[in-house]
Amino acid sequence: MLRKQQGWTLWMTGLPSAGKTTTANALTEKLEELGCAVECLDGDKLRQHIGSGLGFTREDRMENVRRAVYVCGLLNRHGVNAVVAMISPYAEMRAYARSQLTNFMEVHIDCTISECERRDVKGLYAKARRGEIPLFTGVSDVYERPENPELALHTDGSEVGDNVRLLLEMLQTRGYAAAPSVFGV
Predict the structure, then answer these.
(1) Residue 70: which CATH number?
(2) In what order do the strands lie in the sheet with 9-13?
(3) Which are the contacts of 154, defined by CB distance < 8 A and separation ≥ 6?
(4) Counts of helices then strands in the chain (DSSP H, E)
(5) Cα–Cα distance between 65 and 67 in angstroms, integer?
(6) Is residue 4 in a domain?
């Protein structure tokens, strides 16, 4: 019997509207083109489908991360790679994910709060500043910046394609993908 290789998890963290989902979707699309078994797990969709009863307290956010980590573990165990786009604002959340997942990489999607607010098509930052949304990350709740991520992408000064190339290079360096030059990136 053939044994599948253990999958990996690439966990993108950052402020709301920093570009996590855009970057994760672009990377996932490129990996799929290359024949990689990969699943993109978007924080908003995860909350809608497996965390619908959770609020935004620290405890509820941690439970949401635990559920996402569980799904990633299942995928990874079966050779499917996971690209996660989730705010996960507290360092303890990301440390938990790292402790539970064998092949874990943290990527900080770094963007100024002013640019995040400019990009915010839903108007969530404005609502949070008016006090209409309590515990909003970056406004009325903290975002603990990663201290030692495997990679930091500054999405307010770079193009999505350039960020995908950097991510592919990181995966290649860790032995998870072929050289990006082969990919035509």
Answers:
(1) 3.40.50.300
(2) 38-42, 81-85, 9-13, 104-110, 151-154
(3) 110, 111
(4) 8, 5
(5) 5
(6) no
How many structural domains are present in the chain? 1
Q: Which domain holds residue 13?
A: 9-175
Q: Which two tokens stand for residue 30?
A: 């490129």
CA atoms within 13 A on the CB side of 160: 13
User: 58-90, pLDDT tens digit by residue?
Assistant: 999 999 999 999 999 999 999 999 999 999 999
Could you list the beta-strand ranges (E) of 59-177. Answer: 81-85, 104-110, 151-154
The DSSP element (H or E) to which 38 belongs, if any, is strand 38-42
Tens digit of pLDDT for each residue in 118-144?
A: 999 999 999 999 999 999 999 999 999
The residues annotated with a catalytic role in the active site are 88
Residue 14 lies in a domain: yes
Identify the residue whose tokens are 């996971």.
82
Is residue 182 assigned to a domain?
no
Helix axes 43-50, 20-33, angle to 10 degrees: 90
In a domain, 3, yes or no: no
